[in-house]
Design a protein that fits this description.
Elements (H helix, E strand, L loop, with lengths): L2 E8 L3 H12 L5 E5 L4 E8 L6 E8 L23 E8 L3 H4 L8 E8 L2 E8 L12 E6 L14 E6 L20 E5 L5 E5 L1
Length: 199
């Protein structure tokens, strides 16, 4: 059974996009960092769901870093605008090596990734592109006891809906809404504002 781990947004400039997203969400990110392997960096926000907390990741190319393999989330390509774009989501599993042997995840290879004290196994495409152009998730299996949400208090953000036209095919523990889009996400802010991104 797959679990919703986090949702990924992307942008060309992390600092500018983080400021914009913080204003839209009404709260500042609780953390972030750099991914040396991919030459990227990110900012993170905690999101509540009806089942368990997850986090929202805003990720971008780090202009001061040289990647050691193709960048993930399709970030080898520059976005056509400076807007914030929905990339997709990452599903958690306790058996990633077995999960990538079965459809629809056979295109993924499992690699080891670290960021600071955190380490995880990650199921990613060979070229760093999104699986089914974002209609299907990457996979993650956290290693050790460290997780990005450790010690992070709720920030008043709530996942209202996640929907996609391919997600019902997955053995997934999270409720999926109906959608014509490949993937869409709606988040409610502390002020009651509803933000929606569609891929």
């Amino acid at each position: 059974m797959l679990k919703l781990d986090h949702i990924a947004l992307g942008a060309n400039d992390l600092d500018k996009a983080s400021q914009t997203l913080s204003e839209q969400l009404g709260v500042l990110p609780f953390g972030g960092g750099e991914h040396e392997l991919f030459g990227t960096h990110n900012k993170l926000w905690r999101i509540e769901t009806d089942l368990y907390p997850i986090y929202l990741e805003l990720i971008a190319v780090n202009p001061n870093a040289v990647p050691k393999r193709p960048r993930w989330f399709g970030l080898e390509n520059v976005f056509p605008s400076d807007e914030i774009h929905l990339l997709g989501f990452i599903a958690g599993t306790d058996a990633i090596d077995e999960a990538v042997k079965a459809p629809p995840f056979q295109q993924l290879e499992v690699i080891d990734v670290t960021r600071g004290a955190q380490s995880w196994k990650f199921g990613i495409t060979h070229d760093g592109g999104l699986l089914a152009d974002g209609a299907l998730p990457y996979l993650i299996e956290w290693q050790g006891e460290k997780h990005p949400l450790d010690g992070v208090a709720p920030q008043g953000l709530k996942l209202q809906e996640m929907a996609g036209n391919s997600l019902h095919k997955l053995a997934f523990d999270f409720p999926i809404g109906e959608a014509d889009a490949k993937f869409s996400v709606s988040i409610q802010t502390p002020s009651g504002r509803l933000l929606r991104w569609t891929r």
